[in-house]
Amino acid sequence: MDGGMERGRDGGAAVPEVDWKVGVDIGGTFIDFCALETRSGRVASLKVLTTPDDPGAELMTGLTLLAEREGLDPRAVTRFVHGTTVGMNTVIQRKGAPLALLTNASFEDVIELARLRMPDTYSLFCSRPDQLVSRDMVFGIPARLRSDGTERQAPDRAAVADAVAAIRAKGALGVVVSFLHSWRDDAQESAVKEEVARLAPELFVFTSAEVWPVIREYERTTTAILNAYVHPRISGYLSALEERLAGRGVPARPLLTKSNGGVMNAAEGKRACVHMLLSGAASGVNGAAWLARQAGEPRILTLDIGGTSADFALIIDGQARFGVGEMIGEFPLHIPSVSVSSIGIGGGSIASVDGQGVLRVGPESAGSTPGPACYGRGGEWATVTDAMVVCGWLGHSQMAYGQLRMDADLARAAVGRLADRLGRSLEATAQAILDVAVSEMFAEVEKMAARAGVDVRDFALMPFGGGGPMLGVFLARELGMSRVVAPRWPGVVSALGGLVADLRGDFVRTLFADLDAGLMPVLREAFAAMGREGRDWLAAQGHSGAAELGIVADMRYAGQSYEIETPLRPDWLDGDDPGAIADAFHATHARLYDFDDPDGRIEIVNLRLSAIGNGPALHFPMAEEEASAASAERTVPIFTGGAVTPVGLYRRAELPAGARFQGPAIVAQEDTTFAIPAGTEARVDAHLNLHLTFAE
Question: What is the DSSP string of 86-103?
Answer without folding.
Answer: HHHHHHHTT-S--EEEEE
